[in-house]
Design brief:
alpha/beta; three-stranded parallel beta sheet; 4 helices; about 35% helix
Length: about 80
């Protein structure tokens, strides 16, 4: 497993609540982001506004591929 965020680090971002991998998502615009998500058991979300291509993201089976960060927010609110 790749080195990820520690429970202490995650707790500082979640108001003190320790989160499990099932409670998190890795959002990124490069292929290494969904790879890291997969290695750490976290849902991966690819954003096409960076250097990653749809083909590269699809190879890593992310839960979502969005055109831009705004699309992610709109989808998660549904």
């Amino acid at each position: 497993m790749a080195t990820g965020l520690s429970a202490q680090t995650c707790g500082s971002y979640s108001g003190g609540k320790v989160l499990s991998a099932a409670d998190m998502a890795m959002i990124g615009d490069r292929t290494h982001d969904p790879i890291g998500a997969n290695e750490n058991g976290v849902a991966g979300i690819g954003v096409l506004s960076g250097d990653g291509s749809r083909t590269e993201f699809e190879a890593e089976n992310p839960v979502l591929i969005a055109k831009n960060p705004t699309d992610i927010s709109a989808i998660l609110k549904k």
